[in-house]
């Protein structure tokens, strides 16, 4: 019998389990386990990726008014039915936080594919706009494919919107960066039940005289709070109702004041006309206008100057106020809140047969020049640019825009799109005038004027005090109209210089970037636009002509 | 086992080394072109501050007169010219760079634009104490016109030269500026800027010269070529209509433009008043069709012109 040496485990000579319990076997086992795990991971991931083939795009906005988000959900669902490979997520953010959220997302490169433009400098400042948003000029110069089969089939996309897509055009960049999707208009909502008590028609005030008559009668009625009914309240103060009066009274001054024949009157032109003695507060027309303002404001609540939007809506919905001046965006929420039949009409202005003001009246303001609102732009960093653009095309096509806005109860923006019954009174009305004089020229004069106007409207001061205060402010040597003119002169010079930067940007791209599309066209258009400004010197020359002295930019 | 281990280490080290070498080689060879493309991208975003060092680096590293040198120098000069806030030093540097480019490579493709920019720097005020030197500006514009007479940039230079006189707004200088541009257009009727030039002349005849006959003539020349901004000519149509009606006593001419306001630019805001004007003139009154969803009111009372 011999003593054989001890057999190490795993060796060929080891027996039973010991043969397998060694480092080599352990290594092989580990390797096998890793391979199996990796294979499983690959198979699992591929399966997961196979189910996520949809392209997801996000559309962000701040329109939290009743009806908008629901309509957006529905139009998205319709679009997704047509495009099963696309999923659209709506991101509604309160206006207070919209700018912050958008800024952070865009800078991080993860912003929504489509964003409502506005409320943030990222969507308006030229240098940021070009950095984050896709220029749309080439696209909107082609027909919108979703208009096929409609009367708009052959028209360029930009010519299918009522405003000609002016609401989407950036003048300084000479490019489209956004496409409007709806109009936003101001009207007078009224409580039909209350008005039925004081008038024999259902239309709402048909004129300013009718408005005054209705209001006087309403004040005799007590509401369920045992207080006299307030004839009218405004979500944004009295301005919405005063502004149309300015046009009604002073549109006929355009021939006197618009020496440039541009078809409108600026505060600058008003100041020049004032200095030349062509118009002032002694004019019977101007006196009548302010008297009319005061009469209007007497139909508001006593605390009109401090009443906020929520309070105004509350008073109207509760039946304590008979009429409410606010926008189309409030229509849906008002119809769901009020417990009375709701009417909508145009803001009342005097007509030429008004017993008091008729001789001074041209007509109501027109809305033909209003630009479309609620515009959307396309994030350059979108991973699905084609899909984002396609949805925007659908949303602003005749069928898409009509359907969306009928569901949302907003005024559509595409030519020929029929509004919902509720929105019919809100569609832009081209009848009327555009110009009005405005004495509040310059920041300092505006501050003085606004302060005096509130006091005048409240009855705390008389017309002569308003007149003297405003005219003195205009004539103030340091802070008056001359100062405002110098500021505008300076601003125009800066504008020309800002144009120069954009021109330099385009010129460099033309020279160095073979992919720069349409840079030549944009350059030429902006060049002519800038040249016409004459480095701002027309402002200097005009001032010298009517003031007889020189001016330096501020 | 030790040999196997060292073999593995050697293989891994070799792979890492090759990767690094390859990347470095690629980076070194591609750097100037990639940087300049990136620099142009920065400029397209108005980011002249980030673009500048790339252009500066490119032209400093390249032989004088080479394409990359020219591109880099031009780009660096533009960045200095457009950086904010502008100051005397940045402006002076830009001036030096443009001048160097023009002197060293007078027939460079960048040279005419560099000269034009030198003119622009003389004409425009860039900071508070900056001075305007119209004579120097005019010299540069003239050099571009004379040096590249058949290039579109010459037309731009003619416009700038004309404008440098018109902006003075006194009669003599305005007439000088007009004469320059009218001669240019007579010699170059197909200039790409011709429509805009005619419109600029019309604007000038309107104000300060108050020559309404020439105003109307020149606007019509611009119109015949085609407006620079189609769809936005409503304001010009209004001016034409009023001048023809009030000043030139041409009711048919006025009616033509009131009608165009309604049919071509209904969103200019003057369509309704144009309807009133046509009624006043006893002419056919088209509907404002684009607002079919609103009631299109018939004109009620005539407006006094």
Describe this protein's structure.
The complex is a heterodimer of chains A (554) and B (305). By secondary structure, chain A is of the alpha/beta class. Chain A has three domains: 56-183 and 371-426, D-Maltodextrin-Binding Protein, domain 2, CATH 3.40.190; 186-360, Periplasmic binding protein-like II (D-Maltodextrin-Binding Protein, domain 2, 3-Layer(aba) Sandwich); 477-554. Chain A has 20 helices and ten strands. Chain A has helices spanning 23-51, 68-82, 95-108, 126-132, 137-140, 192-198, 208-218, 239-250, 254-257, 267-275, 284-297, 309-317, 331-337, 385-395, 398-408, 443-458, 463-475, 481-512, 519-531, 537-547, and strands at 55-61, 86-92, 114-116, 169-170, 175-176, 186-191, 230-238, 321-327, 342-345, 376-378. Chain A has a four-stranded mixed sheet with strand order 2-1-3-10, with helices on both faces. Chain A has a four-stranded mixed sheet with strand order 7-8-6-9, sandwiched between helices. In chain A, strand 1 (55-61), helix 2 (68-82) and strand 2 form a beta-alpha-beta unit. Chain A starts with 22 loop residues before the first helix and ends in a 7-residue tail after the last helix. Chain B has 305 residues and is an all-alpha fold. Helices cover 70% and strands 0% of the residues of chain B. In chain B, helix 1 packs across helix 3 (67-82), helix 6 (134-147) packs antiparallel against helix 7 and helix 10 runs antiparallel to helix 11 (234-247). The N and C termini of chain B lie far apart (106 Å). Chain B contains 13 helices and no strands. Chain B has a domain at 233-305. The longest helix of chain B has 43 residues, at 2-44. The interface between A and B is large, with 66 and 72 residues.
